[in-house]
Amino acid sequence: MENRIKIERAILDITQDELAQKIGVSRQTINSIEANRYVPSTVLALKLSAVFNKPVNDFFKLTEND
């Protein structure tokens, strides 16, 4: 899976720590999601959707390997 979390953060001009606080996770979790080392739960994906005010499909995409 690919994601645009870093790009969406840049659009909002917020840090990993600020995003983490908004959705109730650690900065390390945000870092791991951005680096594709961690696939967030549905609940976290929906929380990100609320912060970015965009559908989940706008910032998470399946790849051929998924």
Automatic annotation (TrEMBL):
Pfam families reported for this sequence? HTH_3 (PF01381)
Q: Where in this chain does the record put each HTH cro/C1-type domain?
A: 5-59
User: Where, if anywhere, are coiled coils annotated?
Assistant: none
Keyword annotations of the record: DNA-binding
Cross-referenced PROSITE patterns: HTH_CROC1 (PS50943)
Q: Which InterPro entries does this entry report, sorted A to Z?
A: Cro/C1-type_HTH, Lambda_DNA-bd_dom_sf
Stated name of the protein: Helix-turn-helix transcriptional regulator
What's the source species for this entry?
A: Geojedonia litorea
